[in-house]
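Protocol step 4 of 5: obtain the predicted structure for the target chain.
Materials: sequence only (see below). No template structures provided, no constraints applied. The aim of this step is simply to have a reference model before the mutagenesis design in step 5. Sequence pasted as it appears in the construct record:
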Amino acid sequence: QVQVTESGGGLVQAGGSLRLSCAASGSISSINWMRWFRQAPGKQREWVATMASDGNTNYAASVQGRFTVTASRDNAKNTVYLQMSGLKPEDTGVYYCSADCRPQGADYWGQGTQVTVSS
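Step 4 output (structure tokens):
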């Protein structure tokens, strides 16, 4: 069984920063990639960023240059971070993390963490 847990959300003023964490645990031999998504009230969930197992990262255009995905230096922790800077009110939403895990060959999702950016 695999569990994915996000943390680090909160309330921040526009222009501020937050760092979210995502940890995957359980019967995992490897993780192909970990992704961040967000869902604003009344909107569909949208992709934010991806970190692949080789360290490559990709970002949605809306967060490029403001958000950075990094991984824990301890690979065994299966943890990634989403450093968010220059936050805008439109960044408000529930942020979710997913992990594509082996040997299961499935995507596992966390429960999400709320980020609220006030103007």
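Step 4 remarks: The chain has a mean pLDDT of 95. The chain is about 0% helix and 60% strand.
Proceed to step 5.
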